Amino acid sequence: MNANRVLGLLCAATLTSLGAATQPSVPPAGDGRVQEWTVYGGDAGGTKYSPLSDINRSNVAKLEIAWEWKPDDAPLEQYGTRPGNFQNTPLMIDNVLYVSTPYNKVVALDAETGAPRWSFDPKAYEDGQPPNGTGFVHRGLAAWRDGDKLRIFLNSRYRLICLDASTGLPVDTFGDHGIVDTSRGLVWEIEKKHYTQTSPPVIYRDLVILGNGVGDRLVYRKDPPGDVRAFDARTGKQLWSFHTIPQAGEFGHDTWKNGAASVTGHTNAWAPMTLDVVRGLLYLPVGTPSNDFYGGRRLGAGLFGESIVCLDANTGKRQWHFQITHHGLWDYDPPSPPNLVTIAPEGKRIDAVVQLTKQGFAFAFDRVTGTPVWPIEERAVPGSDVPGEQAAPTQPFPTKPPAFTEQGVSLDDVFDATPELRNAALSAIKQYRLGPLYTPPSMEGTIMRPGVIGGANWGGGAFDPDTGMLYLKSTNQASVARIIRADTSPGNARAGEVDAELIGDLSGSLTFEAPGVSGSPLPLLKPPYGHLVAIDLNKGTIAWRVPFGDNPALRAHRALAGVSLPVALGAAGAPGVMVTRGGLLFAGGTDMALHAVDKATGSDVWKMPLPRRVTGTPMTYRARSGRQFVVVATSAGVDASLVAFALGDSSR
Questions:
Q1: Angle at the Cα of 79 (from 73 to 80), degrees rounded to 5?
Q2: Number of domain units in the chain
Q3: Does residue 255 lie in a domain region?
Q4: Residue 31 pLDDT exceeds 60
Q5: d(CA 137, CA 253)
Q6: How far apart are the C-alpha atoms of 379 and 394, rounded to whole Å?
Q7: Which strands make up the sheet holding 619-622, listed edge to edge?
Q8: How far is Cα 220 from Cα 291, in angstroms, rounded to an integer?
Q9: Is residue 15 part of a domain?
Q10: What's CA 392's distance to the chain center, in Å?
Q11: Sign of the C-alpha dihedral, residues 228, 231, 236, 238?
């Protein structure tokens, strides 16, 4: 990018960007004024906070379903595809909801009724099933104003698409008739069908900024890299690129040994990124280098793997970084949008950024300098005995706040609802290696807790600026990390390229067979399996932590008939929470219900049973009618549904 362009961007104060907008002042309840939701995370800093209080603790029990809309994505035999979970959080702008479906379709819905206005199908399914662990999912869109014209940006697999918000048609002047091929312009050429997107772009002034997704189990030389790039919002021209794997001559290149930086992929910002609009600072949660669980071909610390990185959004230049996990071996990529918060620890006001992690930490930094808000200590961790592996001898541990989920595994953690079940669980767990957090993968299999979905995941945190509280939904499950020899047989397309890979249970549902009840396994570790957590960022403490949701299938297990179980078994899962000035958190889980929770205590104040589980992070808005809606995505495939809740007529 040339100096004139940088100067022009810095001076372009009159350019309007929905991503740069701040939340308007809170309108009086019921006066008909609109409160929009213009950015995936509620605002550019990802707070997932709404100043609305029309729905509050005193009346939330009167919420009812206002309307539903179904994406109708279905398996397509001719392409070998199937839609995954409906994980979208819609935008609401000008009384219209903009939704992306699992198949990456974009639909505009009337914000009052849910009636469709238009739809756009990028036909992402024509390239077959995405080669990643999530399959076809898509979490959100981005919006930008070019004068009086509203544009919707969709990042669909290897394409960035610009749509006219009034018609749903591609904008002909952007890229190639509305489409940019984002597989081009990376640090090396890639197989484009291995490049994917699940998170929304970031809009800054007239830039559209993208990370990318890569299938974790795709492991080969020069698999897709994680370059973060900015494109001109009008023309689609690529304007800058930040190499998350530093190339020769770039800062951090020396942290990759034996030429690994020239052949190692991934190291990508697949989770949503966030933005300090005023300062023009972009925050990246950068993931694990390839291979997620074996680092013998990428020795060294491996910047910027598993780091939070702050860039100048105008130029893509690094401002600061902090590596959260050195030489990662656990798929502990930072999974959530970094939350931009303003807090006052010890009475000192700080504009900070907080990165929640799969391993259960909340790392807090001054968002300008990268200085930790509280000290972070390098502590010794277990070594590896896998041939060729060189695990990092220490890892960073924040001194505040404390961990928000269970870490590591011992025999005391096994399922123990009855003595008989405990003995069976002990027998099953003894085949694996156990240990504290950061015990490396092993040839016999290491139980790692948190597992590959965390801790925290892509739902991330919701920040209340009125109280300094950061709220999140956490998961308490384990995974098995086992190293095996790669398949080097002549019939294997990747023969000789992979040293080892993870096998075993990757879903977090580590199980054992109950005695006398075959074919119906139980969780190997005891509940609860999910929590809601409130972190007081002014004090660096956990204000409260409560089990959240239930597991009806486990409760009905034949081996548990007549057994006294906890009131809440806890719901695992990645979606996040939303917080409002009405004193409420909204969250969903695997117990097939949407919950409204008192944000002061964590106790349920309302629960709406649903015919399907919640799979997205909720959002809220006030439409032109003056009615506040809470909207959430549910279920998967042909059963997926977007559900809108509002107060009944007698309550308004």
A1: 85
A2: 1
A3: yes
A4: no
A5: 33
A6: 5
A7: 63-69, 641-647, 628-634, 619-622
A8: 9
A9: no
A10: 26
A11: negative
Average pLDDT value over all residues in the chain: 91
β-bridge pairing 207-210 and 202-204: antiparallel
DSSP label at residue 73:
-
Measured CA to CA, the distance from residue 361 to residue 535 in angstroms comes to 11
Cα 548 to Cα 529: distance, rounded to the nearest angstrom: 8
Other Cβ atoms within 10 Å of 193 Cβ, number: 15
Type of residue at 510: L
Tokens (6 digits) for 109: 């819905």
In a domain, 7, yes or no: no
Element (H, E) at 240: strand 238-242
């370059």: which residue's tokens?
227
Q: Are 274 and 340 in contact (CB under 8 A)?
A: yes
**591: containing domain:** 24-489+497-651
Contact status, residue 455 vs residue 514, Cβ threshold 8 Å: no
d(CA 415, CA 412): 9
Write the CATH number for 608. Answer: 2.140.10.10
Q: Which tokens sit at 181?
A: 């091929």
> Which strands make up the sheet holding 362-366, listed edge to edge?
339-343, 350-356, 362-366
DSSP 345: G
Burial label for 24, CB within 10 Å (0-12, 13-18, 19+), is exposed
The Cα angle at residue 280 between residues 279 and 281, in degrees rounded to 5 = 95
- Is 15 a residue whose pLDDT tops 50? no
In a domain, 10, yes or no: no
Residues 6 or more apart whose Cβ sits within 8 Å of residue 227: 185, 186, 187, 212, 241, 242, 243, 244
Amino acid at 120: F
Residue 500 predicted with pLDDT over 50: no
pLDDT in tens, 375-428: 999 999 999 999 889 999 999 999 999 999 999 999 999 999 999 999 999 999
The whole-model pTM stands at: 0.93
CA atoms within 13 A on the CB side of 206: 20
Report the chain's terminal Cα–Cα distance, integer Å: 53
Comparing 204-218, 350-364, 496-510, 605-619, which segment has the lowest mean pLDDT? 496-510
Q: Name residue 404's amino acid.
A: F
Angle, alpha carbons 408-409-410 (nearest 5°)? 135
pLDDT digits (tens, 9 = 90+) for 106-153: 999 999 999 999 999 999 999 999 987 788 999 999 999 999 999 999
240, 151, 160: which is closest to 200 by C-alpha? 160
CB 614 within 8 A of CB 586: no
Residues 617, 206, 366, 266: what is their CA dihedral angle, to the nearest 10 degrees? Answer: 70
Q: Enter the tokens of residue 332.
A: 């502990």
What whole-number distance in Å separates Cα of residue 408 and Cα of residue 168?
49
